[in-house]
Amino acid sequence: MSNHTTPLVPTPGQTVGPFYGYALPFEKDNELLAPGSAGSIRLQGTVYDGAGETVPDAILEIWQPDAEGRIVQKTGSLVRDGYTFTGWGRGSVGYSGVFTFTTVNPGPTEPGAAPFISVAIFARGLTNRLFTRIYLPEDTAALANDPLLSSLDPKRRDTLIARRDPDGGLTWDIHFQGANETVFLDFQ
To answer: How far is CA 92 from CA 28, 67, 124, in A?
Structure first.
């Protein structure tokens, strides 16, 4: 019996993606409520890498309160029934780098707070998922008073604020790196 111990070598890190269609998508995963439902909007955008090229195989997950600002605690996220809003969705990015969700405008969770949607991003080349937020553009006073946004340089702050589309939907793009790099959050 030897007292000599062999040092353990750490397992090399692996990236989060690429993703393949088997077992990840589920029916209506990007529909937090049925398209055309009262109050429904389309949230869309494009995912870009550091070179400005679209990323065709990312997956986004969103969490949000309902239109009144209530944190929803209903089941049904993985088996959609077409009318129950659960506040959670998952959407894969298409070959063109575009994602889309059918959701509602989130309400503020407390009076005067800026409404936002929480986002997790999984993509090839990332060793961990990324976290960020999408803020609605309208309530400029609430945006100015938001603790996260007010801590950022104004140009960086703009990477978290969606654009309102003519049809009432939201457009918000993700940039992994570069001049327009999206602000990502670090939860320790």
So the answer is: 11, 24, 13
- Least Cα distance to 78 among 131, 128, 123, 30 occurs for 30
Give the C-alpha separation, 4 to 9, whole Å.
Answer: 16
What's the pLDDT tens digit per position in 165-174? 999 999 999 9
Examine the pLDDT at 140 and tell me if it is beyond 70.
yes
Rounded Cα gap, residues 5 and 134, in angstroms: 51
Whether the per-residue pLDDT at 137 is higher than 80: the answer is yes
How many whole angstroms separate alpha carbon 137 and alpha carbon 28? Answer: 27
100, containing H or E segment:
strand 98-104
Q: What is the C-alpha radius of gyration for the chain, rounded to an integer number of angstroms?
A: 19
Q: Is 178 helix (H, G, I), strand (E, B) or coil?
A: coil
Backbone angles phi, psi at 162, to 5 degrees: -75, 160
From 164, 172, 104, 117, select the one nearest 140 (Cα to Cα).
164
Q: Any residues with CB less than 8 A from the CB of 2 and at least 6 apart, and which?
A: none
